[in-house]
Amino acid sequence: MKHVLIDGYNLGLEKGTGVATYARNLSREVGALGHRTSVLYGDRLPSPRQPLLREIAFFDAEAQPRRNRLRDAVGILSPAASRAEAIPLSGQVVTRQFAARLPHHDTLYSAPDFYRRAHGRFQAWEKSTAVQVPSRPDLAHWTYPLPVRVPGAANLYTLHDLVPLRLPYTTLDNKRRYLALIRMLARTADHLVTVSECSRRDIIELAGVAPDRVTNTYQSVDIPQRLLDLSEDQVAREVEGALGAPYKDYFLFWGSIEPKKNVGRIVEAYLASGVTTPLVVVGARAWRAEAELRLLDAFGAGKPIRGDVRRGRIIQLPYAPFGLLVSLIRGAKAALFPSLYEGFGLPVLEAMLLGTPVLCSNTSSLPEVAGEAALSVDPYDTAAIAAGLRALDADAGLRADLSTRGLAQAATFSPERYRARLDALYRRFL
Asked: Does domain 225-411 fall into CATH 3.40.50.2000?
């Protein structure tokens, strides 16, 4: 049995991200491969000496570290490695609140302020920051491009996509710094990992990485069986209670509302399509969301006006817990994901796995994920999206066919297949 460490960089977020889902799935598969699995968190309070207080501090969501400019400057200037400490999990702290967000683990570690310090050092010196773990891992798999490393271990980094370089107008990243980080990892990493052939080509062509130094493992989605076992009647009650919309009679988009998700064109196409089936948008407002939300805000509130079938037919939820989200996906007439660019496109796989028909883009990685099992459209063509909505709304046979094809396509991204690809990669370094 080998020791594999995974970062908790995105795992502590309250609402989660696609990268957090990736990290949780990865932790489960590492455990299923028989490896000892540890997770390294950072950006937490300094660890108290008393084990109980250390456990309390780790789960205290309201606690914030005191910022000290002198200490921050020393941390950036110092070449010394950060030190991680194990988080004792005695059971004294009731942690069921965090059950859905915690990854599979044998040990949890925390290196206080590690990731913030690492980003500061890279910004100042363009150097990575080392971390010392009490039990040194054989392999560190960083689930995000981070300027960090574990000395003496094989360091692998997942680059999900190069969207900041391919669609620079859709992100807030400092593009110069981002490119410098990618090029540093290309030089220093033991290996780079990605999640689609589209992203692999981008990494090879844009970052100049040798083809044999980047591996596509794809990824999988693992939905708890208890959610899959809910009856249609139970799902219908949840959906109607949350939305006021009938089961299998609404279109659904979910994800962060940001430029690359193309929410503005979804709403524009919906309004132009003339369909009266409600449109449900589940997602928090992220960066540069104002342009995406102009139409959404204009038509998403208020009661319908006589003769206007549009107003009030758009339902917004800023957030849905994962269990409710699964029911919303199962209860949708179709899932909409005409994203401008995706490294993988996990929502497409989630919808297909749950038997929901999908409308998605014909660009980036989405043709790889959806195959022939989705209605594919040009994400920049509002008329094409509107035509797709009309077809899905009117044609029950088309929906049934896409549902059947989607279930078969989702099986090609099963946890077992993902685990086998991951195992083949790890064996090269363990």
From this structure: yes
Among all chains, which residue has been given the structure tokens 């540890």? 38
Strand partners, 216: 194
For 181, the enclosing helix (H) or strand (E) is: helix 175-188
Name residues of the chain where pLDDT drops below 50.
302, 304-305, 307-311
What whole-number distance in Å separates Cα of residue 65 and Cα of residue 57? 10
Identify whether the C-beta of residue 149 lies closer than 8 Å to the C-beta of residue 128.
yes
Which pTM does this prediction carry? 0.92
Q: Convert the pLDDT of each residue in 123-147 to its tens digit.
A: 999 999 999 999 999 999 999 999 9
Write out the two tokens for 72: 């921050």
d(CA 21, CA 23): 5
* Residue 285 confidence (pLDDT): 75
- The answer to whether the beta carbons of residues 49 and 119 sit under 8 Å apart is no
Gap between the Cα atoms of 167 and 92, Å rounded:
47
- CB contact at 8 A, 338 and 385: yes
Tokens of 109: 């570690």
Give per-residue burial for 60-69: e unless 16+ CB within 10 Å, then b: eeeeeeeeee
User: If you count them, how many residues does the chain have?
Assistant: 430
Q: Which residues contact 330 (CB under 8 A, 6 or more apart)?
A: 230, 235, 354, 355, 356
Give the domain ranges of the chain. 3-220+415-426, 225-411
Residue-level pLDDT at 115: 93
Which uninterrupted H or E stretch holds 316? strand 314-317
Within 8 A by CB and 6+ apart from 38, the residues are: 3, 4, 5, 6, 105, 106, 107, 108, 109, 133, 135, 137
Strands (E), 187-250: 191-194, 214-216
3-220+415-426 is classed CATH 3.40.50: yes
Please tell me the predicted confidence (pLDDT) of residue 64.
59
- 């396509």: which residue's tokens? 409
Report the alpha-carbon distance of residue 112 to residue 117 in Å, rounded. Answer: 9
| Cα dihedral: 183, 364, 339, 352 (round 10) | -120
Contact 381, 265 (CB under 8 A): no
